[in-house]
Amino acid sequence: MNMASLKKVLNKFSGLVFAGVLAAIIGTSGIASAMGEHGHKAGDLVIGEAKIRATVGSMTATGGYVTITNNGKSDDRLISVSAPFAKMSEIHTMENDDGVMKMRPMPNGAVIPAGGRLMLKPGGKHMMFMGVKDALAPDSEYSLTLTFANAGEVVINAIVKRPGDLHAGHN
User: Fold this and answer.
1) Alpha carbons within 13 A on the beta-carbon side of 153
2) How do residues 21-59 score in pLDDT, each as one tens digit?
3) What does the pLDDT read at residue 165?
4) Closest CA relative to residue 129, chosen from 139, 143, 140
5) What is the rounded distance in angstroms from the CA atom of residue 147 to the CA atom of residue 97?
6) I need a labelling partner for 16 at 20 to 30 A (CA). Which of 23, 30, 57, 135 fits?
7) For residue 24, what are the contacts with CB-CB under 8 A and spacing of at least 6?
């Protein structure tokens, strides 16, 4: 086979490979956006990977983070969260009070707007777990129950992450 023939074969092959890779990317991203990173779906809601901040020693409180996307035409509301490893679980927000950031509970929950998302993340709205019974070690998993106004109760798994592995702006 001469060099010109080899180039033609390689060009055809690389075009097929590119088309196959592109089809795989488009196909799997459609599935991922429809089902969420770990497949948690409740009605029109898609629940991403939930994370919990690891605890050490005598720490009895920690935060939890997740992104919830609402693909529906009407708002929903995250009303409550519960976790078997904590005596009390709440949805919290961070507010600037005269230059001092303060954490406050959200007794009415948090809205997930129609066609939008709710990001529970470090430094913002988040899940707060208090009365944590035992240390939560990195890479361990715990179940959480999220209760929504429209979508109802959804049990998901959350993975425990080191504080350095959680970044503001990411869940």
Assistant:
1) 7
2) 333 333 333 333 334 445 588 999 999 999 999 998 889
3) 87
4) 143
5) 29
6) 30
7) none
The token duo for 117 is 């998302």
What angle is formed at CA 51 by the lines to CA 53 and CA 29, rounded to 5 degrees?
Answer: 150
Q: What is the pLDDT of residue 15?
A: 46
Phi and psi at 146, nearest 5°, equal: -100, 135
At residue 141, what are phi and psi to the nearest 5 degrees?
Answer: -125, 145
Give DSSP secondary structure letters for the chain: --HHHHHHHHHHHHHHHHHHHHHHHHHHHHHHHHH-TT-EEETTEEE--EEEE---TT--EEEEEEEEEE-SSS-EEEEEEE-TTEEEEEEEEEEEETTEEEEEE-TT-EEE-TT-EEEE-TTSSEEEEEEE-S---TT-EEEEEEEETTTEEEEEEEEEE-GGG--TT--
What is the arithmetic mean of pLDDT over 103-132? 96
What's the mean per-residue pLDDT of the chain? 82
The answer to whether 148 and 42 have CB atoms below 8 angstroms apart is: yes
